[in-house]
Design brief:
about 525 residues, alpha+beta, OB fold (Dihydrolipoamide Acetyltransferase, E2P), 3 domains, 5-stranded mixed beta barrel, two-stranded antiparallel ribbon, 19 helices, about 60% helix, about 10% strand
């Protein structure tokens, strides 16, 4: 049974080899990258040798040799990509005065500025080791209480601070490893800066493509404000459409978490799928379905949207899957949905090796795998012709299937469970599509006061209803059960049971359950 599953999912082996290399690199020093690079080149030469001689790779008894070389090659690739993307591990503290370029800036709830910078010149006597791609994080004391951001991406600044190396690991095994999180974001040092030791030397705007994308995100936020959307509605809208979750008030975030719909505020495949369907609906009016221009236009819009919202693993997964499926449809080819998930994971790990340790990476892929696996099994328990009843049933089963794919990992990571997630999804998910469409129309029509006022009113009403609904759901009895605990072994046993049970049912009912739903799901990207 397991062998039959692996045949149409060749990328699963590739993902496992690459992920193993990334994981093993956590226990290696960055200085060992040269050794693994030499092994990488040697394996590449061996692969060329194997494929160059037909008598080797065509012989059935020697096919395993080619497979071993490929897996070892990907293992070394994972180690090298992870080590190269990792900042220097710095120990101790350094008194520094330095100039730097601002990469990103956020305002904390207390008004302090969290600025990520690229160091340019160190002016103090302490020599801080700096890698070619290392970043520093500085927390700047606010000059006043007005929450006005004095710098933006691309600005040149000068500051004095006591820098401390980022250390991963936490003395409390149940606590969040914030140091490890920063380190995997490429940040090697962090320091606090007094307002009198912070100076803006130039306000040059960022020139790069990614920085311009961030500027576009800030302009969209400004358009929301100009059209009267403020307070909690603005916080939710900016998180839902632009990925600005740092704007969220703790109370609102708690409501969404306890209601089981926090995933709608983390821009994900659901949002990408809605944008994709909206684009296709518009393009259907004047472009054929199989058009090269249409293919490139849709993929370009999805990639730009992913960058605009921060390129989270869930967004990248949806964009990659939709791009592969649309390309396959153009060439009239189809693929196994599980293989598409593995292709998505493989590309994401190549681009961002640290995603392997990002819980969003796993939850996103497990949610889709859960829907593809369990929805066809559950769907047979009802068959209503009434379109309203069928829609409610489909939404319920999709939510349950996604929960089956993610709840063991959620219990292991978050130690809690939202009991009213079905009710929450029933009321909240239908609001996402109209909110996204209205938000994009508001940006497009921002030059017209009349059209903007027509759109901003209904948009604000939908946001208000969403916030009131999650607040009510949070107030229900036993809305959020915390303190649950399962270990890593228990989590793996639960997943083993779910996979074995699903595999056994599919093997018994192979002619009944079809996998075409997987292609429909990926084409519409429900999650």
């Amino acid at each position: 049974m397991f062998q039959d599953f692996l045949k149409p999912v060749p990328f699963l082996r590739f993902v496992i080899a690459l992920a193993t290399g990334i994981y093993c690199s956590e226990y290696l020093n960055k200085s060992t990258v040269g050794v693994f690079f030499a092994g990488f080149v040697l394996l590449f030469v061996c692969l060329l040798f194997v494929f160059y001689i037909p008598s080797v790779y065509r012989r059935f008894s020697l096919r395993w040799l080619c497979g071993v070389f490929i897996l070892l090659f990907l293992f070394h690739l994972g180690v090298i990509s992870s080590l190269l993307s990792r900042p220097l591990h710095i120990k101790g503290e350094y008194e520094v005065e330095a100039t730097a370029e601002v990469v990103e800036v956020d305002v904390t709830y207390s008004g302090y500025l969290r600025i990520v910078v690229t160091p340019h010149e160190i002016l103090s006597r302490d020599s801080v080791p700096v890698g070619p791609s290392d970043l520093w994080q500085i927390i700047v004391e606010p000059a006043d209480s007005s929450f006005i951001v004095p710098v933006s991406s691309g600005n040149k600044i000068r500051f004095k601070t006591r820098l401390e190396g980022i250390s991963s690991g936490t003395p409390n095994p149940m606590a969040f490893d914030y140091g490890g999180y920063l380190f995997r974001q490429g940040i090697s040092c962090s320091g606090f800066v007094n307002k009198d030791d912070f100076f803006v030397e130039s306000r040059d705007s960022a020139k790069g493509f990614l920085q311009r994308i961030k500027e576009a995100s800030s302009k969209a936020y400004g358009i929301y404000e100009e059209n009267g959307i403020s307070g909690k509605q603005l916080q939710v809208l900016s998180a839902l459409t632009l990925g600005m979750r740092q704007e969220l008030d703790n109370e609102i975030k708690t409501w969404f978490v306890h209601s089981g719909v926090i995933h709608v505020l983390a821009v994900s495949g659901l949002h990408v799928g809605i944008i994709f369907l909206f684009l296709n609906y518009i393009l259907n009016s004047f472009l054929p379905r199989r058009s090269l221009f249409r293919l490139f236009f849709v993929i370009t819009v999805l990639v730009v949207y992913a960058l605009l919202t921060g390129a989270a693993p869930s967004v990248l997964r949806a964009v990659i899957m939709l791009s592969v499926i649309q390309t396959g449809n153009y060439f009239r080819r189809q693929s196994n949905i599980y293989n598409l998930l593995c292709v998505s994971a493989f590309i994401i790990l190549l681009i961002q090796p640290s995603s392997l340790f990002h819980v969003g990476f796993w939850l996103s892929h497990l949610a889709v795998a859960g829907i593809v696996t369990f929805y066809p099994l559950l769907h047979r328990f009802y068959a209503y012709r009434n379109i309203f009843v069928r829609s409610i049933g489909d939404m319920t089963l999709v939510s349950v299937s996604a929960q089956l794919g993610t709840f063991p990992l959620s219990l292991y990571v978050f130690r809690a469970f939202p009991c009213w997630f079905l009710v929450s999804n029933f009321f909240i998910l239908p609001l996402i599509a109209p909110i996204l469409v209205l938000a994009n129309l508001l940006i497009v029509t921002s030059g017209s006061d009349f059209l903007s006022s027509l759109i901003s009113g209904p948009l604000e009403e939908l946001l208000t209803f969403m916030i009131e609904m999650v607040e009510w759901l949070n107030s229900l009895p036993s809305a959020y059960i915390s303190g649950l605990w399962i270990g890593g072994l228990t989590m793996l046993l639960i997943y083993s049971f779910l996979i074995t049970a699903a595999g056994w049912i599919y093997s018994k009912k192979q002619n009944v359950y079809k996998t075409r739903f997987g292609f429909f799901l990926a084409d519409n990207c429900c999650f």
